[in-house]
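[Meeting: bench + compute handoff]

Bench side (C.D.) handed over the final construct sequence. Compute side (W.E.) agreed to return the predicted structure before the next meeting so the bench team could plan truncations. Sequence as handed over:
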Amino acid sequence: MRATFMTACKITSQSKRRCFVCKILVKNLEKEQSIMVQVTVKERQQLIEKASNAKDPLESLQEMFVYTKDDFRVRLKSWRKADIPQKTLKWAIKLAERNVGPFYSTCSLGWQPKIKQADMNKHWARYLVAYTEDTNIPVAYCMFRFDVDYERSVLYCYEAQLEENARRKGLGSHMMKILETAAAHWHMEKLVLTVLKNNPSAMDFFRKIGYTTDETSPGREENAPYEILSKDIAA
């Protein structure tokens, strides 16, 4: 009995030592993981700052800045909020009101023109605008920024609006491809955007070009009037 008791004590003692060693290893691992997360967050922030501070983050994509389909031909230009002509910005705001204002008005969000105007005048806003080559009239634009979204480095597209005469010509897909290429150039992880659920044509468009429901999108039980879509970016 005594031998058995001593053996049991020995085993228990060894188990305690092993448990103590395991705890140390776990703590060290958690410490290392914490450091890795901190480094990753820091690196992401550095990537965002580098892209955001670039005078023209789309400069390397100039070969994509002319788009032609049949007799439809446009050239594209990248703008910072500080540089975009006020006339062009006012047109962009009015186009958003015409295109998506009715969808906002018929959902719980409601259309709030002053808020939309303030959003589109944010100092960090970047614009990609398409102009007809012959008349230099703006016909489409995307508003975007580089940001950290749920600890992910992303290019967030806030607006993608086209005039009626510029639709169904492949221009929207081309402009989104430019943003996706820019996201890859600046080592972003995703391109993210928001679509109203009561706007089926917009939802269909983005899904057809490869966007899927993002993991951060509200669940059905939340009954949100919008869905967050995203596309993984291969750097």
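W.E. noted at the follow-up: Residues 1-22, 28-39 have pLDDT under 50 and may be disordered. C.D. will use this when planning the next construct.
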